Amino acid sequence: MARLILFGPPGAGKGTQAVSLAKDFNIPHVSTGDLFRAAISGKTPLGLQVQSYLDQGQLVPDQVVIDMVRERLAQMDTNGGWLLDGFPRTIPQAQTLEGLLQEMHQTCDRVLNLQVPEHVLVARMLSRGRKDDTESVIQDRLGVYHRETAPILDFYRTRNCLVDIDGDTTVERVTHRIKTALADLL
Ligand code: AMP
After folding, report:
1. How far, in Å, is the centroid of ligand 1 from the Cα of 184?
2. 153, burial (CB in 10 Å: exposed 0-12, middle 13-18, buried 19+)
3. What pLDDT was estimated at residue 130?
4. pLDDT tens across 155-168, in order?
5. What is the distance between the alpha carbons of residues 31 and 33, in angstroms, rounded to a whole number?
6. Residue 178: CB atoms within 10 Å
7. Less Cβ around it within 10 Å: N or C end of the chain?
8. Domains defined for the chain, CATH in brackets
9. Which of the 8 DSSP states describes residue 149?
10. Atom 14 of ligand 1 has which residue's CA nearest to it?
11. What is the SS3 assignment for 112?
């Protein structure tokens, strides 16, 4: 059982690492980006509401994201733990998550901060070919990360649950580093 947050800039490899981590810990992988993309391809009301934000690399408004995550964490399969990927992404989201976890009598075990140099991030995103991975949208998303998301690191650092992981190497090596950082939880 583990409750984990995978944190890092776009292109750091959160989604890739999340898949094996969720399997090892047998916990659901909750990716807000994946949930939004599924809503968009299903043409649901939520999908229609968020599409332009994703297309432009802008953040979906906090309340929309928070309502979606609240609903997801209320589902039974998260009772034994969860892995959040791409959430929280703003200070208000982090604060709301903290309150939500208190309500549910849960705590986050660890926040893994994947660190990757900016030029590597850009190269990785350009090579994966997602719709929002064009050069100018990538620059916008990196700008949003520095302005809105990176300040969350201090929020978690003061709570002593943040672990920095050097993510500038192969997928396998990063996986190994993450497992080592979580060995006490397995
Ligand atoms: P990701 O797959 O995590 O890179 O997310 C893709 C896009 O979904 C982002 O560029 C945002 O438009 C949106 N998104 C995902 N998670 C969040 C979040 N926590 N807050 C606001 N927008 C989000």
Report:
1. 30
2. middle
3. 87
4. 999 988 999 999 99
5. 5
6. 24
7. C
8. 2-30+81-185 (3.40.50.300)
9. I
10. 33
11. strand
Any ligand 1 atom below 6 A from CB of 144: no
The model's pLDDT over 36-90, given as tens digits with 9 standing for 90+, comes to: 999 999 999 999 999 999 999 999 999 999 999 999 999 999 999 999 999 999 9
| Residue that the structure tokens 């810990």 belong to | 25
Question: What separation in Å is there between the alpha carbon of 6 and the centre of ligand 1?
Answer: 13
Residue 150 CB partners (closer than 8 Å, separation 6+): 9
Q: How many CB atoms lie within 10 A of CB 48?
A: 11
CA–centroid distance, 173 to ligand 1, in Å, is 26
**Ramachandran angles phi, psi of 113, nearest 5°:** -105, 100
The answer to whether the CB of 185 falls within 8 A of the CB of 30 is: no
Residue with tokens 């490899």: 13
